[in-house]
Amino acid sequence: MEEEELIDCYHGLILGALKKCHVYYTNPNFEDYVQIARITLIQCHREEIKKDPTLPHFNSFAYQRIYWKIMDTLREEQRLTLREVQVEPLTLAESMNQTSIDESLLSAEEQIEKLMPYLTKQEINYLIDSLVHQLTVSEISLKYHVSRRAVYNWRNHTSLKFLKYFNEKGSQNEEQFR
């Protein structure tokens, strides 16, 4: 069976799986989801035809695979949407205040750079991943193949060093900090 025939034959199955996922024609990404479902159907058919050419129970198997793929895609999009920073347009008064915020960010970056020599490699990795890449503790633990508890320890040690450093008035007491 060719791909176009396969898609035409199982079009109702694709629409049924999309309906179960609450993806309707009104969804702005509906065509994208249909395309994902078609690709999944073709991949599923190719895999199953290798296992058993008679394809018993293919309809239910394909339906479930399409449903899982669409749900995975929806979850991934939701996760990415939750992480996006919502930026609202600035008014003139807010943009005037923006310069003071930028200055405070610069001073914070300078203070972090002053403290970097006192941090371990893991603590630096934690800072970069949490502040720059905005990774969660779980994602950092997966990235470095350590437990979440280890990442929490990195965070806590980093926080303690920052507190100690800034309580001692920063660079004025660098010798005592070591």
* CA radius of gyration: 26 Å
Query: Main beta sheet: strand number and arrangement?
Result: none
Please trace the helix and strand order, writing H or E for each element. Answer: HHHHHHHHH
Q: What gap, in angstroms, lies between the N and C termini?
A: 72 Å
Q: Report helical residue fraction.
A: over 70%
Computed structural class? mainly alpha
Strand content: under 5%
Nearest-integer average pLDDT: 82
Shape: elongated
Low-confidence stretches: none
Strand segment count: 0
How many domains would you count in the coordinates?
2
Enumerate how many helices there are, as a single number.
Answer: 9
Organism: Vagococcus silagei
Protein name: Sigma-70 family RNA polymerase sigma factor
GO molecular function: DNA-binding transcription factor activity
Supply the key terms.
DNA-binding transcription factor activity; single chain; 0% strand; elongated; RNA_pol_sigma_r3/r4-like; Arc Repressor Mutant, subunit A; 2 domains; mainly alpha; 178 residues; RNA_pol_sigma_r2; 75% helix
